[in-house]
Specification:
Enolase-like, domain 1, TIM Barrel, globular, binds 2-succinylbenzoate, binds magnesium ion
Length: about 375
């Protein structure tokens, strides 16, 4: 069944977070999210662009993704016949970067393909190895250590299987020491979002005594070689996030021994086709992966659940319950996590949840439709 898209609808929504989220690069109170709806023969597929509000995690942000999609990607995808959603990414492969914008549209095409075939998204992408997804949480930098300890307590009691805390210079060794004192047995990790340099290695080595599962992206967003040097000096495994944007980079990083774990984010690598390739490269080298998050609405969250059903997603990811982020999500039934820290993978067609159209319209701040000429 071929894919031939008649219309692409771009929509920007704004949603306040229930609690601010702070990383080493800044604090977010509200998300500005671009959603992509691709329409073919009356069937809609949905995808979420995972770019942030500022070009601080990577070079993309909400507004850049809008322009790239509207002016460069949508015109080349609309009216073009694809044998499968697996081919959609190639149509914009000549664009340098902007993988989150391109990935949002690519993910929408997979959802469309799944709905055309009346199968779940996870089946369309070749997943289904897991019927339940193991969940962890990512907890931002707080105003005080006490506030952080309280948040960790809440999430551990809620059943989450792994706690990730954000770290940054001034919020690292001392904070992790306190967390370990209070929670000696939990699976714990730190995410630096590129806040350190190789010369900071003694500080990072000082974290070895706290038995962290991993330390995520300690060095620059585009750095592989320095991560390899750092990994050689640390006992704690390094997990790569920002610097893995393709299966080729994953293969290079693994070959260089720049880390022992990879966080796969759908948007960061440009969609499902590349995410699967990253997954396969890691699997071939016995490198475990987990699914990262970008504070997604229910639509991106559902895509992450589908991705997480691929076999090498063996570590708890950052995909957690809707209510941790939103008072009300854009899907009619929010994503929920069981008391033992699992999400049940939905069986319905496409991404497996219903879009709450009325609510979505009420939080939409701009919309633009690109139609076949
Ligand atoms: O590095 O994983 C990251 C959020 C925004 C930008 C980068 C990251 C994150 C998270 C949040 O850690 C994960 C989530 O809960 O969605
Ligand atoms: Mg990260």
């Amino acid at each position: 069944m071929a894919i031939l898209i008649d219309q692409i609808k771009l929509r920007q929504i704004e949603m306040p977070l229930v609690h601010f989220f702070q990383t080493s690069f800044g604090r977010t109170y509200a998300r500005k999210i671009v959603l992509v709806e691709v329409i073919s023969g009356g069937i809609s597929g949905w995808g979420e662009v995972t770019a942030g509000e500022n070009p601080f995690y990577n070079e993309e942000w909400t507004d850049s993704s809008w322009l790239i999609l509207r002016d460069f990607v949508a015109p080349r995808v609309i009216g073009h016949e694809f044998a499968s959603a697996a081919e959609v990414g190639e149509r914009s492969a000549h664009i340098r970067g902007h993988l989150m914008a391109r990935g949002g549209l690519e993910a929408a095409c997979w959802d469309l393909e799944a709905r055309q075939k009346h199968v779940p998204l996870w089946a369309a992408i070749g997943g289904g190895a897991h019927k339940e997804i193991a969940c962890g949480v990512s907890i931002g930098i707080q105003d005080s250590v006490d506030q952080l300890l309280g948040k960790i307590d809440t999430e551990v009691r809620a059943g989450y299987r792994r706690i990730k805390i954000k770290i940054a210079p001034g919020w690292d060794v001392n904070v992790i020491r306190e967390v370990r004192k209070r929670f000696p047995g939990i699976l714990l990790m730190g995410d630096a979002n590129s806040a350190y340099r190789l010369e900071d290695w003694p500080l990072l080595a000082a974290l070895d005594e706290f038995d962290l599962m991993m330390i995520e992206q300690p060095l620059a967003h585009d750095e592989i070689i320095d991560h390899a040097e750092l990994q050689a000096r640390l006992k704690t495994p390094i997990c790569l996030d920002e610097c893995i944007r393709s299966a080729h980079q994953a293969e290079q990083a693994i070959r260089m021994q720049a880390g022992r774990i990879i966080n796969i984010k759908l948007g960061r690598v440009g969609g499902f086709a590349e995410a699967k390739k990253v997954h396969d490269v890691a699997l071939a080298h016995q490198i475990p992966v987990w699914c990262g998050g970008m504070l997604e609405s229910g639509i991106g969250r559902a895509a992450n659940i589908a991705l997480s059903t691929l076999p090498n997603f063996v570590l708890p990811g950052d995909v957690s319950a809707s209510k941790r982020y939103w008072k009300r999500d854009v899907i009619t039934e929010p994503v929920e996590v069981s008391p033992n820290g699992l999400i049940t993978v939905p069986e319905g067609p496409g991404f497996g949840f219903e879009v709450d159209h009325a609510f979505l319209d009420s939080i939409t701040v701009r919309q633009e439709t690109i139609s076949k000429p």
